[in-house]
Amino acid sequence: MTKFPDGFLWGGATAANQLEGGYQDGGKGLSIADALPGGPDRFKIVQQPDFDWTIDEQRYTYPNHTGIDHYHRFKEDIALFAEMGFKCYRFSIAWSRIFPQGDELEPNEAGLKFYDAVIAECLKYKIEPVITISHYEMPLNLAKLYGGWANKRLITFYERFARTVLTRYHDQVSYWMTFNEINSAAHFPVMSQGLVPANGANQKQNIFQAWHNQFVAGAMAVKIGHELDPHLQVGCMLLFATTYSYNANPVNQLATIQQNQDFNYFCGDVQIRGEYPAYTNRLMRQYGFTFNDLNWNDEELALLKANPVDYIGFSYYMSAAVEVTAEQETVAGNLLGGVKNPFLKASDWGWQIDPVGLRIALNELYDRYQKPLFIVENGLGAVDQIDAQHQVDDDYRIDYLREHIEAMAGAIGDGVDLIGYTPWGCIDLVSASTGQMSKRYGFIYVDLDDAGQGTLDRYRKKSFGWYQTVIKSNGEQL
Q1: How many angstroms from the chain centroid is the CA of residue 260?
Q2: Domain span at residue 394?
Q3: What is the mean pLDDT of residues 363-372?
Q4: Is residue 212 included in any domain, yes or no?
Q5: Is the residue at 80 inside a domain?
Q6: What stretches of 204-363 adopt beta strand conformation (E)?
Q7: Which residues of 92-131 are buried (b: 16+ CB within 10 A; e: fewer)?
Q8: What is the distance between the alpha carbons of residues 344 and 318, in angstroms, rounded to a whole number?
Q9: Digit-coded pLDDT (tens) for 232-285
Q10: What is the pLDDT of residues 394-414, one digit of tens each?
Q11: Residue 406 a catalytic site member
Q12: 316 alpha-carbon distance from chain centroid
């Protein structure tokens, strides 16, 4: 097997809104994640026409309010990451901790001091922080008062937020990402854009306008980062699902190319190449508008061109198959499903497991863009059983990760420039798609159930020791 390069960044990934809790501590304001109900129906609830971000604790639970109490236990958690041997730790900064309403002129110092402490704790163990500036949350006020990212005023608010954290931490943090899974808004704009039906989520033009505003804001973050330190690495972050045609029917082949363009590549093409791709109007016309119907100007396009991202962060959990000529059995997935692939098995939540698809994804992305790649999410959501001795034998997770790491090694042998790997939810946390604790990804078990009951005690799973060996051997012992 191809060896991983020296200095390869092994680690794990989390998001502030899914693990921190402390949702009103330290001057933090409410975020859109704080208003998302828990449970597997959360997306159905937020897609109702009367959903208006009201927090109704009589009808719903809100697991993000507590998370796993990382806000108060981050030192314990980071010590466990260090015990595994993490070289890096990907986490996000909660926008509403720094600007509680989002539109303030001055940041909340208490929120900044919290991240001072988190970063210091990482560096104490020589763990490289990898920070997502905006990960599926924004101050709730920006969604309710301003209408989310479809409003161009959010560019200014994000720029202020990004400038604040980049200025404060650029000498301690080398790797940054602008927006988490930015392309996910194609299917669910609530988390990444703050759009629900009540403020325009059902009109595709609003989603594309929101994307444009995010592209401009992200380019500003790249510009700010490079002005602070030309060597700073500011990347984008995409949700990537390797996509196959179900068969050799040319109609399905064309549909597969177009789905790849529409979902896997559009947001990347703009942020990585610095300009809108040739197929932009083809993509928009299917929804009844063109690029010229959006609110943009030449200065914004020049900003995009001058400030492409430095590397490509992406998530990979599953692949998808395309069949447009006949009805086929469908499956669930990471915000998008597809046709059931008869060659693949699936997770407890129906996500099709395809490690070879990761090698394909790495080759496709590197061939297209020729920029360093960073797998910042990958993992298996599963129902873990803990015994009386607090042991979790999660061999199924070990098997999943082993096969995906082998695919990574294969891609490196193919010539792909891969800089790191941070499996998702390295410690159990609240699922973004279902609001559940029972959908577990971590190497560390957290005693908390879907009803919010439990001690919050942490326990090492079998995969903890396995991943420790993987890191120590730089991927040679799997």
Answers
A1: 19
A2: 9-472
A3: 98
A4: yes
A5: yes
A6: 233-239, 243-245, 312-315, 320-322, 330-331, 338-339, 345-346, 352-353
A7: bbbbbbbbbebbbeebbeebbebbeebbebbeeeebbbbb
A8: 10
A9: 999 999 999 999 999 999 999 999 999 999 999 999 999 999 999 999 999 999
A10: 999 999 999 999 999 999 999
A11: no
A12: 10
Which pair of tokens denotes residue 242? 């390797």
Poorest-pLDDT segment among 11-25, 59-73, 235-249, 337-351: 337-351
Q: How many domains does the chain have?
A: 1
69 within some domain: yes
Do residues 424 and 379 make contact, with C-beta atoms less than 8 angstroms apart?
yes
Confidence of residue 350 (pLDDT cuts 50, 70, 90): confident
Among candidate residues 20, 323, 377, 406, the one labeled active-site is 377
Q: What is the DSSP string of 8-65?
A: -EEEEE--HHHH---TTGGGPPPBGGGGSPPSTTHHHHHTSTT--S---TTT---GGG
CB-based contact 361:339 (threshold 8 Å): no
Helices 355-369, 395-413: axis angle to 10 degrees equals 30
Which domain CATH number covers 348?
3.20.20.80
Q: Residue 54 falls within a domain, yes or no?
A: yes
Tokens of 72: 């108060």
